[in-house]
Amino acid sequence: MRKSVRGIGIVWILAGISLGVIGILVGSFQDLSLAKTIYHENNLFGKVVGYIGSLPGYVVFGFAGVFLGRYFLSEEKKVWHILGYVAKYGFPLIVGLIYGYDVLKDSFGTLVGLGGGAVLVFLLDFFLSYLLKNVTSPKEDFKDALILLFAFVFGLGLTLLLKHFIIRPRYLYLATLENTDEFRAWYDFSSTLLKDHPELDHDLVASAPSGHTMLSALGLGSVLLAKNHKKTQGKEWIFSLVSLLWTLFVAIGRMSDGHHFLSDISWSMLLGFGLIGFFAFALGHSYPEFEKNAEQRRIYRWNEALISRKENFDTILVSQRSFQMMRRKNARLHVKSKTTLCVRRTRKGGSIKIGNTYRRLRVKSCSNPNT
Fold first, then answer.
1. What mean pLDDT, rounded, does the chain reach?
2. pLDDT tens-place string over residues 175-225
3. Contact (CB, 8 A) for 283 and 147
4. Cross-sheet strand order for the sheet of 340-344
5. Residue 302 above 70 pLDDT?
6. How does DSSP assign 195-232, residue by residue?
7. Helix, strand or coil for residue 292?
8. Residue 85 pLDDT > 60, yes or no?
9. 60 within 8 A of 156, measured Cβ to Cβ
10. Distance between CA atoms of 36 and 230, rounded to whole angstroms?
11. What is the pLDDT of residue 191?
12. Which residues pair with 362 in a beta bridge?
């Protein structure tokens, strides 16, 4: 039975969805009483979460542009390179503008909020792209980009759509009224509330679902970043655990300042973890080491060995079949510039183009029987 997909552990996806379902069941009966217990007006914890709670999710979303950039930059035609640079550096800026508009604009003004959000997300994505050196193929980058794009676009779209149609007062609004008659359970919301009270700001009745919690849950996609570096490969569970704990941290913070009820943040967790899991299964495949093709597994192991600077190979000895597959798959080997690729039982020499670096390895015939 498959334990993970694209490095995202199925157990973590199920854990997030299960917590969401439990929260919905409990919130169906205890939303109001829990809100009364947890709510503290203008508490610092809630304010901090309001500013930075969704930031990791936006950063992971922006990294989809980095994945796309790596894919386009691996193409031979220069026109794709232009598109690659636009995706790699432009997309994080666009995501940062969305973050600034959504979170910072009301507190810091339009210019500072949008500009600050764009710069912050761009710098974090740029730092991560530098820190997490890529060891996967361009095709794998493209798959990761699609997973993040679809999950976040659908997540943000669903959140905005549901906030528009589900009219549910926030608890902080009910607290100012000192009257809970306007409280609505998540399954019994009233669409006539704004008609009865036209003076109400729509944001005060947009309790469900929680956008911050949704983005935090989608932050589970950070696992796709983890498998791009040798030191973090195999430690994806740490990123999954941190994502789950961060989602719970954000959910509690949003409840503490009266912005959401338990059922609001629970639905958001269910949708967020569900979306990232669904698109990982729909668009992704297992790592190359789990592929049935033995030659593909061998190329993957070479890549793992050669990326480590502890290993300095002057010659790589491969079979003719492996060499042909490397040409066909555009194998992404990380080697020294003077490394020679020694192909057993071949009459042809020359060179081979490797990955998106356009570095050519010298190829020569080799009669050594060892592989």
1. 81
2. 988 778 888 889 886 667 777 777 778 888 889 899 999 999 999 999 998
3. yes
4. 315-318, 340-344, 359-366, 350-354
5. no
6. HH-TTS-GGGGB-SS-HHHHHHHHGGGGHHHHTTSTTT
7. coil
8. yes
9. no
10. 48
11. 64
12. 340, 351
**Contact indicator for 134, 141 with CB cutoff of 8 Å:** yes
What are the structure tokens assigned to 235, written together? 């430690």
Residue showing tokens 């961060």: 246
- Residue 247 burial (10 A CB sphere; 0-12, 13-18, 19+): buried
What does the DSSP 8-state code read for residue 317? E
- Express each pLDDT in 247-275 by its tens digit: 999 999 999 999 999 999 999 999 999 99
Task: Render 132-196 in DSSP notation, one character per residue.
Answer: S---S-HHHHHHHHHHHHHHHHHHHHHHHHHHHH--B--HHHHHHHT--TT---TTS--TTHHHH
- Structure tokens, 100: 């600034």
Name the region of 300 (left: φ>0; alpha: ψ -120 to 50; beta: rest): alpha
Q: Is 354 helix (H, G, I), strand (E, B) or coil?
A: strand
pLDDT tens digit string along 215-244?
Answer: 999 999 999 988 777 778 788 899 999 999
Measuring CA to CA, how many Å separate 115 from each of 105, 120, 212?
A: 10, 9, 20
Tens digits of per-residue pLDDT, 13-63?
Answer: 999 999 999 999 999 999 999 999 999 988 999 999 999 999 999 999 999
352 bridge partner residues = 361
Q: Is 107 exposed, middle or buried (0-12, 13-18, 19+ CB in 10 A)?
A: exposed
Q: What are phi and psi of 353, to 5 degrees?
A: -85, 130
- Please give the biggest Cα pair distance in the chain: 87
CA–CA dist 286, 2 (Å, integer)? 9
Using CA atoms, how far apart are residues 316 and 342, in angstroms rounded to an integer? 6
> Rounded CA gap, 57 and 271, in Å?
14
pLDDT band at 92 (very low <50, low <70, confident <90, very high): very high
CA nearest neighbour of 261 among 214, 209, 216? 209
